[in-house]
Write a structure and sequence with these properties.
Structural class: alpha/beta
Largest sheet: 17 strands, mixed
Pfam family, one: F-box-like
Number of strands: 23
Distance between the termini: 124 Å
Protein name: F-box domain-containing protein
Organism: Steccherinum ochraceum
Shape: flat
Number of helices: 17
InterPro entries: F-box_dom
Length: 546
């Protein structure tokens, strides 16, 4: 055997030994990996907890999709053993082969049907006929469909109201007739009887009930009620409007349990229709558990009329949206002057803080309660919000917008005058403030004289208004200071802090303005003193010692 052959033989035996060692190490690593995986938290979780994780992952996924993943044997066995995990039905033609598998694995568990029509240009097909035979087994129905699909669905679906606890029906915009959903009749001897209806969540978006009376019988255990677009003015017809007595009957049936109420473009007809369910159009309904009230109305009068029938707790979060705002009528909706004692409006008497934000075509009013750890006025959002009012308008000339700003501020005082408002914050494009005179400021602020301690006026730097420079910042400050200091009796006797924030401050001009009004300020705030802050510069008017 020559040297070359001997080298090849030794090399071959070495490779065989290395391969054997490698296989041994790999086998040992596999054993260690298996032992490690067996002790991993995901593999040692109880089946009940693992199932809860699966259900949570299912709940937060996109509602138009089905996701299937490769999992370990234990996870697969837990998933296949759970009927609840397979109760989620997606009515897409793309998942046709899965529908029968899903239904079979769901067993006797209540089904969940969810589908949202895409808002982008993508078109996703849907087979309504495939899921109609199973609607009577659904505990949750949450779908948005175009007009013809929704019409097919509500005309052919059957519901078991002792199982169905969540019903959301939304129809994309269409000029077709509004689909009608069938609510069951629950009458015995002419009177409604308590039933075991399971419905807790009801949302109808441009879908009307066959009978408001029948709907009321199903709403007795509701937690959430949302009615949207049932009197849409774009149709140039009020044939779909709700009668006030019928709407009040529905609200009264759910009043003891309702926690969220949303009414969007659902202004009731003001007819002389006879009372329904023992209620008259003059009824005021109490909602002891209501936490959120949202109303979007076309006009201020309609919002005020609706509010006059509702009595809500002081802890209720309120969100109002006026779609056609007229600034001279704001007080009508929030605090009807003819009936200021109505229980429905008592929530206006509890707010400690009011913020008003002016934009070029809309206004937001926010009111709430100061938090226990409330800090100075420049930290504007450190409070608990209870009321939000959005006023839609239209952009006009600067003069018209200045008039709108002044008129809206006029109306805020009477609205909140009976409450303990301690802080008032105004955020506005500076050019609008140039239209407010000394007398205007007095009229705006006088209703807050009992409790107001902090006033903040802030220029909104985000809104670009042409001719911004025509508004003189020193002149605006001077008018406000004159209004505060020259009134007799004092305009705001408890005011302790006046803060003004400009986007482009000029310290020299502001300092000159303060000094020119210093003597009057000293006399006006002699008993309490006053801290004035303009951006980062502060002046203190000391209290006179007697």
């Amino acid at each position: 055997m020559n040297g070359h052959t001997r080298f090849a033989d030794v090399r071959g035996r070495s490779l065989e030994w290395l391969e054997a060692e490698l296989k041994a190490v790999q086998a040992q690593a596999a054993v260690i990996r298996e032992e490690y995986n067996a002790r991993a938290p995901a593999c040692t979780l109880p089946a009940e907890l693992l199932l809860e994780i699966f259900l949570l992952a299912q709940a937060i996924r996109h509602k138009n999709t089905v996701k299937v993943a490769h999992v370990c044997l234990r996870w697969r066995s837990v998933a296949l053993a759970s009927q609840q995990l397979w109760s989620y039905i997606v009515p897409s033609r793309a998942s046709a082969e899965w529908t029968s598998v899903w239904i079979q694995r769901a067993g006797t568990a209540p089904l969940q049907l969810r589908w949202y029509w895409p808002s982008n240009h993508g078109y996703r097909s849907i087979d309504i006929g495939r899921i109609l035979p199973y609607t009577h087994r659904c505990a949750i129905i949450d779908i948005e469909l175009p007009g013809d699909h929704m019409l097919t669905f509500v005309n052919n679906a059957t519901f078991d109201w002792t199982i169905l606890r969540h019903l959301f029906l939304a129809r994309t915009w269409s000029r077709d007739m509004l689909p009608t959903i069938q609510f069951p009749t629950s009458l015995t001897g002419g009177h409604y009887q308590p039933s075991n209806y399971a419905l807790r969540f009801l949302s109808l978006d441009t879908v009307i009930p066959n009978s408001w009376t029948h709907m009321a019988s199903v709403c007795r255990n509701l937690r959430t009620l949302r009615l949207i677009g049932l009197s849409d003015r774009r149709r140039q017809s009020d044939i779909y409007c709700i009668d006030l007595a019928e709407l009040l009957h529905v609200l009264e049936s759910a009043s003891s349990t309702l926690e969220e109420l949303l009414l969007v473009r659902c202004e009731p007809k003001h007819t002389q229709k006879s009372s329904v369910g023992g209620l008259s159009p003059c009824t005021v309904i109490d909602f002891p558990r209501l936490r959120t009230l949202c109303i979007a109305s076309q006009t201020d009068d309609e919002l005020g009329h609706m509010l006059s029938h509702l009595s809500v707790p002081v802890f209720t979060n309120l969100h109002f949206h006026l779609l056609q705002y007229l600034s001279h009528n704001i007080g009508v909706s929030l605090y009807p002057q003819s009936r200021p004692d109505r229980a429905a409006n008592q929530f206006m008497n509890s707010y400690e803080r009011v913020n008003v934000f002016f934009r070029d075509s809309w206004t937001i009013i926010v009111a709430g309660h100061l938090s226990p750890a409330h800090s100075p006025a420049h930290q504007k959002y450190n409070f608990e919000r209870r009321l939000k009012l959005i006023l839609n308008g239209s952009r006009g000339s600067i003069g018209n917008m200045g008039y709108h700003t002044r008129t809206t501020l006029y109306k805020l005082g009477p609205v909140f005058s009976l409450g303990p408002v301690k802080e008032f914050i105004i955020t506005v494009p500076i050019v609008f403030l140039s239209y407010i005179t000394v007398d205007d400021w007095r009229r705006i602020l006088r209703p807050f004289h009992r409790h107001l301690t902090t006033l903040l006026v802030e220029e909104d730097p985000k809104v670009h208004i042409h001719n911004r420079d025509r508004a003189s910042r020193p002149t605006i400050v001077s008018k406000l200071l004159q209004a505060l200091s020259s009134a007799d009796p004092p305009l705001l006797p408890k005011l302790a802090h006046l803060a003004i924030m400009f986007a482009v401050p000029d310290g020299a001009e502001m300092n000159e303005t303060i000094h020119s009004n210093y003597e009057e300020l000293s006399q006006g705030f002699a008993s309490a003193g006053l801290l004035i802050s303009i951006n980062d510069i502060s002046w203190h008017i000391p209290r006179k010692q007697h």
